[in-house]
Amino acid sequence: MHGFGFATLALVTAIGFVGPLLAAIPRLRIPVVVGELFAGLVVGNSGFGIIDVGNSTLQFLANIGFALVMFVVGTQIPVRGLRLRSALPLAAARAALVGTTAAGLGLVLAFEFHRGYAALYAVLMSSSSAALALPVIQSLRLRGSDVLLVAAQIAFADAACILLLPLAIEPDRALVAALSALSIAGCALVIFALLREFDRRGLLRRVHTHSKKDRLALELRTSLLLLFALAAVAVATRVSIMLAGFALGLAVAAVGEPRRLARQLFGITEGFFSPLFFVWLGASLQVGELVANPKFIALGAGLGVGAVLAHCAARVLGQPLPLAVLSAAQLGVPVAAVTIGTERNLFAAGEAAALILGALITIGGTSIAARLTARKHEVPG
């Protein structure tokens, strides 16, 4: 379907229902985002080509969805909780062990396939997708100390790999990339400081009361303003908008997110922008390119299996195996790597698709691990 209009929006929204429908099948328990990705794969570039993923308007809406998904994920990290802070040392140790294992596997893959991207492969296999894994955890209503630890580990790994990706993929621009990422972090810290001061003075409470009384949604408007402004800074400094959304979400969570804002964000994100993004992402995948370059099929498989093995190394530090596999889920970091590599012609034909294939393998592993973990953390009702 070419062009863009209400018909396209209706189609993408309808396709997004595949996620909830598959998740509603008790025996499958497929995570919603996995179903949305699969549906996009079927109707997109690797399937029937029904959706024109190159449409600039659809791409822009998908980017808004990505930023909102990362923002919501950031707000849901309980950074103010004592339990999470107490979990950080062990979570960081597990993430470091995963990173060390991934570095060794990255060297092996780079040597085996004669590619100079050992650092990039290591970052990819080390990464955990907060945008994918945390919604899976929430949708399955997983609870317990082990779940809290893996959530902290995923958030830590996701943030670290987002920061390291530009340095790993283009070492000659490492300084510029680091300064760009620091600019986003600095903006988020300024926003946090201002929000905390406003909260201390009681201004946030007064705004909340006025907004609720007159139904103005001022908190949502302010959050979207800050998100879009920070995303603009990210685009201008050539940093992925995932960092902008996640950093702002952490800043809001650190101050304390009002429940009303949480409900509003959930509504606009999960009701429209999130499924649109995941359907578009699945539709954008160029899996067919691998057929013409079979060696990259092996590379993609190596990256996917290597990521799962690297995260399973955390078993040494007491992490349950299903949660270790769940934490291997990749999404934003491989997508950002493919975007950067494609824009700057860094990859050989089929190599970008290999990175996505690796991510798909980890997503499949996450789906299986989520089912196994749900059986052990079943919550009635």
From TrEMBL:
Q: Can the keyword Transmembrane be found in this entry's annotation?
A: yes
Major localization class: membrane
Q: Which GO terms describe its molecular function?
A: antiporter activity
UniProt xrefs under InterPro entries: Cation/H_exchanger_TM (IPR006153), Na+/solute_symporter_sf (IPR038770)
Topology relative to the membrane: Multi-pass membrane protein
Cell location: Membrane
CC per GO annotation: membrane
Annotated GO biological processes are: proton transmembrane transport; sodium ion transport
Q: Where is the Cation/H+ exchanger transmembrane domain?
A: 17-369
This protein's source sits in the domain of life called Bacteria
User: Which segments cross the bilayer?
Assistant: 6-25, 32-51, 57-79, 91-111, 117-136, 148-169, 175-195, 216-235, 265-283, 295-314, 352-374
Its keywords, alphabetically, are: Antiport, Ion transport, Membrane, Sodium, Sodium transport, Transmembrane, Transmembrane helix, Transport
The record's listing under Pfam families reads: Na_H_Exchanger
Protein family per UniProt: Belongs to the monovalent cation:proton antiporter 2 (CPA2) transporter (TC 2.A.37) family.
Protein name as it appears in the record: Sodium:proton antiporter
- Highest classification ranks of the organism: Bacteria, Bacillati, Actinomycetota, Actinomycetes, Mycobacteriales
